[in-house]
């Protein structure tokens, strides 16, 4: 956003601050927010990564988007640009343009990059979905894909989500093309090939719904424990944290889960947090306050639990979010509103980062 708009916004919030009690991240904290620095300043001061998913279209077209991103975050992850469909649209064609632009933006602004992702059951290219491949053919395709993409960015990606969402909601491996044609060893192979292509990149298994202690997180734990025992080069688990005001995981359960993953010698990143409010109770202000509390709780757990090294949100402004809303129930899952004004969730995340 332009300096002038930023100043106007902050002044407005300073006025508002005169008349509010202080809850986590209430708008009344704007003065404090500005005095204590951006989320990025607070994260850097304690050697932590605070990041957001980035979409190529607004990054190219919207200055306010770019300015907010570089002011507030020291890590980015491409929201779609590195997925197999977009980056490998034809068997022998790779399309690196959008992902290259995001990586260059990050490097020009001193930000780290998470790579997302190498193997997933969604956003696959048509030629894989429609192809009838043998096990050997699909193994070769996967190897070529991982080697080409990871080598292309060698030395420039701090952590890769190598395999995304391989476990279904029942806790069993998802019966997608990778499992049905190759078998369960596609996972170990994917990590080995990624490690060969960029030995310094940290390699993650990333999934949703397994943030707290439940059947899904037990299945993730069992999978990555087995990988460690087999000597597969895995460094961490990404907990996506797409949550809603209804039924969020408890902070204690998330802490216990992070600790047991850490005991395997693995790191944790919170990789994709957003908080849906459309199903919450109360007024809009009440929903935004409850949302802020969840951002505070989850960030605090990550910050105080040693294996957790990074906290990323899936976008940062409600102007661009993948969360869809039914008619009449608009949503607002992120830290900034559509005009890039601070939401209570922004203040709450800053509160968590400022606490020691
Ligand atoms: C989503 C993107 O945000 C959307 O733009 C896209 O249409 C679908 O994918 N878990 C993941 C992410 O690992 O890659 C997904 O991103 C959100 C859920």
Plain-language structure description:
This protein is of the alpha/beta class and 356 residues long. 45% of the residues lie in helices and 15% in strands. It has 15 helices and 9 strands. The chain has helices spanning 3-17, 30-36, 39-45, 56-61, 63-72, 84-87, 97-108, 126-129, 135-152, 177-182, 186-197, 215-229, 251-262, 284-304, 344-354, and strands spanning 49-54, 75-78, 112-119, 159-164, 202-207, 236-239, 242-244, 267-276, 308-313. Strands 1-2-3-4-5-6-8-9 form an 8-stranded parallel β-barrel, surrounded by 6 helices. Helix 9 (135-152) packs parallel to helix 11, helix 13 runs parallel beside helix 14 and helix 14 runs parallel beside helix 15 (344-354). It is globular, with a radius of gyration of 20 Å. The two termini are 30 Å apart. The relative contact order is 0.14.
Supply the key terms.
binds (3S,4R)-3-hydroxy-2-oxopiperidin-4-yl beta-D-xylopyranoside, 45% helix, 15 helices, 356 residues, single chain, alpha/beta, disordered N terminus, 8-stranded parallel beta barrel, 15% strand
Secondary structure: elements and pairs:
Layout: H1 3-17, H2 30-36, H3 39-45, E1 49-54, H4 56-61, H5 63-72, E2 75-78, H6 84-87, H7 97-108, E3 112-119, H8 126-129, H9 135-152, E4 159-164, H10 177-182, H11 186-197, E5 202-207, H12 215-229, E6 236-239, E7 242-244, H13 251-262, E8 267-276, H14 284-304, E9 308-313, H15 344-354
Parallel strand pairs: 1-2, 1-9, 2-3, 3-4, 4-5, 5-6, 6-8, 7-8, 8-9
(3S,4R)-3-hydroxy-2-oxopiperidin-4-yl beta-D-xylopyranoside (XIL) binds at residues 79-80, 164, 208, 240, 272, 322.
């Amino acid at each position: 956003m332009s300096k002038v708009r930023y100043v106007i916004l902050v002044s407005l919030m300073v006025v508002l601050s005169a008349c509010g009690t202080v809850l986590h991240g209430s708008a009344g904290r704007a003065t404090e927010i500005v005095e204590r620095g951006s989320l990025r300043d607070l994260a850097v001061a304690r050697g932590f990564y605070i990041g957001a998913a980035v979409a190529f279209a607004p990054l190219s077209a919207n200055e306010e988007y770019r300015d907010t991103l570089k002011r507030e975050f020291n890590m980015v992850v491409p929201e779609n640009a590195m997925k197999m469909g977009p980056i490998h649209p034809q068997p022998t064609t790779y399309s690196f343009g959008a992902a290259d632009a995001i990586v260059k933006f990050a490097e020009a602004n001193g930000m780290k990059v998470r790579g997302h992702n190498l193997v997933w059951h969604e956003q696959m290219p048509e030629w894989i979905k429609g192809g009838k491949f043998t096990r050997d053919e699909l193994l070769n395709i996967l190897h070529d894909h991982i080697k080409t993409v990871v080598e292309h960015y060698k030395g420039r990606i701090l952590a890769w989500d190598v395999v995304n969402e391989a476990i279904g909601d029942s806790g069993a491996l998802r019966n997608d093309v990778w499992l049905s044609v190759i078998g369960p060893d596609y996972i170990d192979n994917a990590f080995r090939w990624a490690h060969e292509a960029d030995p310094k990149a940290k390699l993650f298994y990333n999934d949703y719904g397994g943030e707290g202690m439940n059947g899904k997180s037990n299945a993730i734990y069992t999978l990555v424990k087995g990988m460690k025992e087999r000597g597969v080069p895995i460094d961490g688990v990404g907990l996506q944290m797409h949550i809603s005001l209804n039924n969020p995981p408890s902070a204690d359960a998330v802490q216990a889960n992070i600790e047991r993953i850490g005991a395997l010698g693995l790191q944790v990143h919170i990789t994709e947090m957003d908080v849906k409010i459309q199903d919450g109770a109360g007024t809009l202000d009440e929903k935004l306050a409850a949302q802020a509390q969840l951002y505070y709780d989850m960030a605090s757990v990550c910050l105080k639990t040693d294996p957790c090294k990074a906290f990323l949100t899936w976008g940062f402004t409600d102007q661009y979010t993948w969360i869809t809303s039914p008619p009449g129930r608009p949503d607002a899952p992120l830290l900034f509103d559509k005009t890039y004004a601070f939401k209570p969730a922004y203040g709450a995340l800053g509160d968590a980062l400022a606490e020691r």
